[in-house]
Design goal:
Order of helices and strands: EHHEEEHEHEEHH
CATH topology: Aminopeptidase
Shape: globular
CATH superfamily: Gcn5-related N-acetyltransferase (GNAT)
Radius of gyration: 16 Å
Strand order of the largest sheet: 1-2-3-4-5-7-6
Helix content: 25-40%
CATH class: Alpha Beta
Strand content: 25-35%
Largest sheet: 7 strands, mixed
Number of domains: 1
Number of helices: 6
Length: about 170
């Protein structure tokens, strides 16, 4: 399994390799990603296995904000289907919870059903659409929202249940 850690500027090349492979014509530039990593309002994580970065994701959640946005999540093709994406997503939601964020939003491509299923399984719900959001492909974005407090409450262990495991 991958280990998660905070991303640093030194991770930019590895992040950009995954970014370009994952998003092709919609990939962010090196300068945009560097600014994302440097922003005090953002919190980026990388998933690392054997010293190699195999995924990354970012949360924008300025101090004191009630709302946060998952900016991006991407995995190397070799890391997909092993739970790494879910681990990164859960870590970002937990971070949002610790920061007092009440709602987390994200955009997902209408044609990315794998990501949509992942987000829905964590409690995200569709709240809108952005027509032709990905203009290079003419693909809409689905806007999804998660109630962070409800997500956290659903994950809380009932003390009665914990005692049943001993």
């Amino acid at each position: 399994m991958s280990t998660l850690r905070s991303a640093t500027a030194a991770d930019l090349d590895a992040i950009m390799a995954i970014e370009r492979a994952s998003f092709a014509s919609d990939a962010w530039s090196d300068a945009v990603m560097a600014a994302e990593l440097a922003s005090p309002h953002n919190h980026y994580l990388v998933a690392e296995r054997a010293g190699r970065i195999e995924g990354y994701a970012g949360l924008r959640a300025p101090a004191g904000a009630n709302d946060g946005d998952i900016q991006t999540i991407a995995l190397a093709a070799s890391a997909r289907g092993r739970g790494t994406g879910r681990a990164i997503l859960e870590a970002l939601i937990e971070l949002a919870s610790v920061r007092g964020v009440r709602n987390v939003f994200l955009d997902v491509r209408d044609d990315n059903t794998v990501a949509q299923r992942l987000y829905a399984s964590e409690g995200f719900r569709e709240i809108g659409r952005r027509a032709n959001y990905y203009p290079s492909d003419g693909v809409d974005a689905i806007v999804m929202q998660l109630d962070v407090r409800a997500w956290s409450a659903a994950r809380a262990v009932d003390p009665a249940d914990a005692g049943a495991c001993t």
